[in-house]
Inverse folding.
């Protein structure tokens, strides 16, 4: 019998879309661990803390230690 391994999902970018996706993923229970990756370490850590506050209302999921990588080009200032 094959036992499923826990699913770890990494989200690159913790802007509006990335953080909303992480929140929806947390509530869905599809991942055992969510890893946030962003160029701005403080932003990634803040989003991870926000998600950790959601855990009591969601399926058991662990928000991994944020890993910082650059994923996009900054938006132009209008």
């Amino acid at each position: 019998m094959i036992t499923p391994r826990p699913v770890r999902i990494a989200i690159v970018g913790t802007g509006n879309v990335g953080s909303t996706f992480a929140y929806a993923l947390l509530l869905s229970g599809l991942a055992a661990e969510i890893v946030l990756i962003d160029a701005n370490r403080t932003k990634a850590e803040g989003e991870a803390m926000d998600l950790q506050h959601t855990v009591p209302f969601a399926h058991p999921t662990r928000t991994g230690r944020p890993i910082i990588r650059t994923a996009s080009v900054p938006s132009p200032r209008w």
Observations:
- DSSP finds two helices and three strands in the chain.
